[in-house]
Write a structure and sequence with these properties.
The chain is α/β, with parallel strands linked by helices. It folds into two domains: about 5-130, Response regulator (Rossmann fold, 3-Layer(aba) Sandwich); about 155-215, Arc Repressor Mutant, subunit A (Orthogonal Bundle), CATH 1.10.10. About 50% of the residues lie in helices and about 10% in strands. It is built from ten helices and five strands. The longest helix has 15 residues, at about 190-205.
């Protein structure tokens, strides 16, 4: 079954280029293109994409508001309306991307990513996994975590976690992969996966991205740590 993708970008050449690249893949079908967030929200409701490739800054409605509406509508529609949002960004963005992760975006990808990286990112997000490449996460999340707009959440939110789960969440927040966490804690990689699943369930988080955001919001991980 093909991955249904909606491509959203206000620059026609960029939008069409992404659509052509993705449409050439045997397992991906581009079901629509939108030049701004408002159009994206309408198309997402009618085209029912699995993944929305969403630019951050656009006229009429920006990518953050569009992502918020698309994800909220999908949530209201139940499990069968599952949709994942992959944000397109550059290094000079402000808090938009951080906020997008908080509301449930599946990750972010730089606009200058290589073709195979874009295709791989769409497949990863479509599979329900968070796109959290450590080399990207450490730099971007720390930058957004330093923002004055970042909310300060009580550490009490984490009271239900065991000491080991707190250790795992801390390392996830620092951008470590399951393999790296297993090596750091001298445990099996499958054990790490189990801990991550339990943390997500206890904290009612949808994916690893939101775990990273919460780790910073509660002060479990400090910028630069």
């Amino acid at each position: 079954m093909s991955i249904r993708v909606l491509v959203v970008d206000d620059q026609a050449m960029v939008r069409e280029g992404f659509a052509a690249l993705l449409g050439a893949q045997s397992d991906i079908e581009v079901v629509g293109q939108a030049e701004n967030g408002a159009v994206a929200v309408e198309l997402a409701a009618s085209c029912r994409p699995d993944v929305v490739l969403m630019d951050v800054r656009m006229p009429v409605m920006d990518g953050l508001e569009a992502a918020r509406r698309i994800l909220a509508e999908a949530l209201d529609g139940g499990p069968e309306r599952s949709v994942h949002v992959l944000m397109l960004t550059t290094f000079d963005v402000d808090d938009y991307v951080y906020d997008a992760l908080r509301i449930g975006a599946g990750g972010f990808l730089f606009k200058d990513a290589l073709a195979d990286e874009l295709v791989a990112a769409v497949r990863i997000v479509a599979g329900g996994e968070a796109l959290l490449a450590p080399s990207v996460t450490r730099r971007l999340i720390e930058r957004f975590a330093q923002s004055s707009a970042r909310p300060e959440l009580s550490r009490d939110r984490l009271d239900g976690l065991t000491d080991r789960e707190l250790e795992v969440m801390t390392l996830v927040g620092r951008g470590l992969s399951n393999h790296e966490i297993a090596a750091a804690l001298f445990i099996a990689q499958q054990t790490v996966k189990t801990h991550v699943s339990k943390i997500l369930a206890k904290l009612e988080l949808r994916d690893r991205v939101q775990m990273v955001v919460l780790a910073y919001d509660t002060g479990l991980v400090e910028p630069g740590a």
